[in-house]
Amino acid sequence: MHQRLDKPWIELTGETAARLPGQLGVYQIADASGRIVKIGTGDARQPFGLRSALQAELATLGPGHRFRVEINQMYRTRWAELLMVHRADHGELPSGNAADGARLGVLSPS
Amino acid sequence: MDFEPTEEQKMLVEGVRRFVREEIVPLEEKLDPDASELPPEDHQRLVEKTKAMGLYGIDIPKQFGGPDIDIVTRTLLAIEMSQHRGGLYVPCYGTFGGAGLAQLFEANDEQKEKYLFPTLRGEKKAFFGLTEPSGGSDPARAIRTRAVRSGNGWSITGRKIFISGADRADYGIVFARTAPEQGREGITCFIVDKGTPGFHVRRVVHTLRSSSYATELEFDDCKVTDGQILGELNKGFAIANDRLSRQRIPYAAACIGVAIKAQQMAVEWSKMRETFGARLSDRQAIQWMLVDNEIDIRTARYFTLAAALKARANQPFRTEAAMAKLIATEGGGRVVDRAMQIHGGMGVTKDLPLERWYREMRIRRIGEGPSEVQRMLIAREILGSKAR
To answer: Residues A96-109, buried b or exposed e (16+ Cβ, 10 A)?
Structure first.
């Protein structure tokens, strides 16, 4: 498993979110400039996992964003890993994860 | 073994059982099925409750401020504390506190002030850095990490893997080879602070235990002083080994608690669920599974308490602890598997805790010394210490 997500970005719309699987996993959302603004999970509490999570993000953020997902049963640990790697790469967390920093560790990825 | 809990033990057990039922389980229902932590405000509120119960920090020796509860009672309580979804690895989500790294009780006064006491107060977190990519079952031979003299101190170089909490720790204890020609008598334990140049947490290691991750560490000319040696030079393996033996009793107890809860669920489900016009509990196939569960649970409880009784009596208990760990982890796995089978499709969903226990219980046959190592330790007792 790569430490960083490197899948192509997809425009976040009602149609693309509706086509997502109902499986568990992680996602990243970027703004129009390509800056990652949120790393999240489609977790087991949501009725349709990733699909529900991205539909909720669309409702909150509105149009003009892109996303990519990774289906992953280990969504909690993968989410923490993506956040720590992002902070190591960029020096800060995505703006949508500002409240998540307190419980994160520090990685020095190779 | 002749064991009957005292009235005080029964009272403590009932108190913890009520705490799990009334405080932990309702909170857990609101969390992700793989959660490993409570929200901070709930955690703090429950810590205050366990302090009021006189049970906070139950693993901490009395001379360091612990409540002076013997290991037999702690075993009985550990069986209760694990009886919830996250209970196998995070009993009551840490609200009963803990001793942190027990090795630090052997630290010198300066180290106690800097590391042990803040850890016991919950102000500092630590990691235990023993296992390496070269192998975890036989650490005395597998350790490749080296510490060589560098000026007035030491330079550590090597890698560690499957290390829990290193990315969030303030410091850790790290085992390195300081006299390669001396085998297990050539390993030293160092205390390494976070942020020390040359110490890196390189990556997350994902496992079946998807509620929490391990990490891989790299030490690249990481400089430490003589004052960061824990215990004596070249005597580090004894520190690690002592921890591994002692840890096996509570490790077994947590497996028993989860097995008890899985069995309770299986019994209730079998009495309620009907197939082909009869309750599951009326069918011999189900009855036999429930019987086998009960035998596995009682056997594990017997051996684990036997080990705890020997430890409390200051008698050698290494073989008994190995038996307890072996029987409780293997038996616990069978119990959860049968409970899952009895629940059918529901058993494998995240709606119930069985699937989390199933994954996590599988790790217990490997963690803290795999089943094969426990059998090897018992074989040495039977055949003599030279048996390999």
So the answer is: bbeeeeeebbebee
